[in-house]
Design brief:
Layout: H1 4-23, E1 35-42, H2 52-67, E2 75-82, H3 87-100, E3 105-107, H4 112-124, E4 129-130, H5 155-169, E5 175-180, H6 183-196, H7 200-203, E6 204-209, H8 217-225, E7 230-234, H9 237-249, E8 256-259, H10 266-273, E9 282-285, H11 299-311, H12 321-338, H13 345-352, E10 381-387, E11 392-394, E12 399-400
Parallel strand pairs: 1-2, 1-3, 3-4, 5-6, 5-7, 7-8
Antiparallel strand pairs: 9-10, 10-11, 10-12
Organism: uncultured Acetobacteraceae bacterium
Signal peptide: 1-24
Protein name: ABC transporter, substrate-binding protein (Cluster 4, leucine/isoleucine/valine/benzoate)
Length: 404
């Protein structure tokens, strides 16, 4: 029979034990003593399949990182699925990664409409949604989507920069604007309005296209008929190449033609369009162009070329998507190393939003990656560049964003 002293001792022991149980933290999904699972979604098929090379390089990058010992003694299990650039498929693949594969976080998922389809879901689940492969301005809205952060410059800021240049060069110009009818394309509308203000309605002729359209030929003909003497093409590689080719074929060459920086790949856009057909087009750069001979002796590009030659020798090294993928992968590696041994989702997000003047080998000189809990736009600097027929030639200074 238990006496009073024994009962008190037993109760005290139970009371002491209880807090230890309540403080025990559940294991982070996707993280074990030997592994970190990272999820990715890419358009390996469909209308934006030119971007699939980004996911392919990332697969190789993390394999090479594993061969060198991994991160904090853990190997990276990089799981990437195809969504065909179809938002419903993106939702399906995101749920598969989070609920079945139980990845620690999502990394560099590609596309504005596709990421828009999953952003609410991943934020409700508090899954880090890191360094998206899209420049939609809304990925910087940390108050609304605190678990989602972009990487590349904002499309809205990019459009502002083009319009400032346009007003400097041709203050009375009429602008033709071809844009993809989704959040990606509409960011350019907003950026143009930011600068033109009340002049927008009088001076801009905007025509959209759907991502499922076979061509944008009719849109180009319509824009030519508007009498515009400047052009802004805000669409993905397939349609950008079509637009450049059609404009040349119908003899329409506005004095100024701006092209979104997500569609400047020599391999995926300029070569298919016909390199001579886009001479004079202006874009904004933040990644070093692999076709630019000025980077021949650059240390960062030597590092990238060495990686490509050793691990992806058959890849087309004129495709700027490869140095992009290398740069964003480098950023992800840095965040993981900065996490130390705490790979909880909360700490991964904390470290991703605490980057200070991070130098990336494939970014233009002077451009750094910076984030904070109130800055979810890691790259804010760009430099204008002009297509010569063989490469993108930079001009002017590095531009720090664009104030309205």
């Amino acid at each position: 029979m238990l006496n009073r002293r024994t009962l008190l001792a037993t109760a005290s022991a139970a009371a002491l034990a209880a807090p230890r149980v309540s403080r025990a933290q559940p294991a982070t999904p996707g993280v074990t003593a030997t592994e970190i699972k990272i999820g990715n979604i890419m358009p390996y098929s469909g209308p934006a399949s030119a971007y699939g090379v980004i996911g392919r390089l990332e697969q190789v990058y993390f394999r090479v990182l594993n061969e060198a010992g991994g991160i904090a003694g853990r190997k990276i299990n990089y799981i990437t699925y195809d969504d065909g650039y179809s938002p419903p498929k993106t939702v399906e693949q995101a749920r598969r990664l989070v609920e079945q594969d139980r990845v620690a976080f999502l990394f560099n998922t590609l596309g504005t409409p596709t990421n828009s389809a999953i952003v609410r879901y991943v934020n409700q689940r508090k899954v880090p949604h890191l360094f998206l492969s899209t420049g939609a301005d809304k990925w910087g809205h940390y108050q609304e989507t605190p678990w989602t952060i972009g990487w590349q410059p904002s499309y809205r800021t990019e459009a502002q920069i083009y319009m400032k240049h346009l007003l400097e060069q041709r203050p009375d110009a009429k602008l033709a604007l071809l844009y993809q009818n989704d959040d990606f394309g509409k960011d350019y509308i907003v950026g143009v309005r930011d600068i033109l203000g009340d002049r927008f309605e009088r001076t801009v002729r905007a025509v959209s296209h759907e991502v499922t359209d076979p061509t944008v030929d009719s849109q180009i003909v319509s824009l030519q008929a508007s009498g515009s003497d400047a052009m802004l093409t805000a669409t993905t590689p397939k349609f950008a190449a079509q637009a450049i080719r059609k404009m040349h074929d119908i003899g329409w060459k506005p004095p100024l033609h701006y092209l979104t920086n997500v569609s400047v790949s020599v391999a995926a856009v300029m070569q298919p369009a016909g390199p001579e057909k886009g001479v004079g087009i202006i874009t904004s750069a933040y990644i070093k162009d692999p076709t630019d001979p000025g980077w021949r002796d650059d240390a960062g590009m030597k590092e990238w070329r060495g990686f490509m030659q050793r691990h992806m020798p058959d890849a087309d090294q004129t495709d700027v998507n490869y140095p992009f993928a290398y740069g964003v992968s480098k950023t992800m590696e840095h965040v993981l190393r900065q996490c130390g041994n705490d790979l909880s989702r909360e700490n991964v997000m904390k470290q991703a939003t605490n980057l200070r003047n991070l130098e990336i080998p494939t970014l233009l000189p002077g451009i750094r990656v910076n984030t904070s809990p109130t800055n979810y736009h890691p790259i804010r600097q760009m430099q204008l560049a002009r297509w010569t027929g063989s490469t993108w030639e930079r001009f002017g200074n590095v531009i720090e964003g664009a104030s309205v």
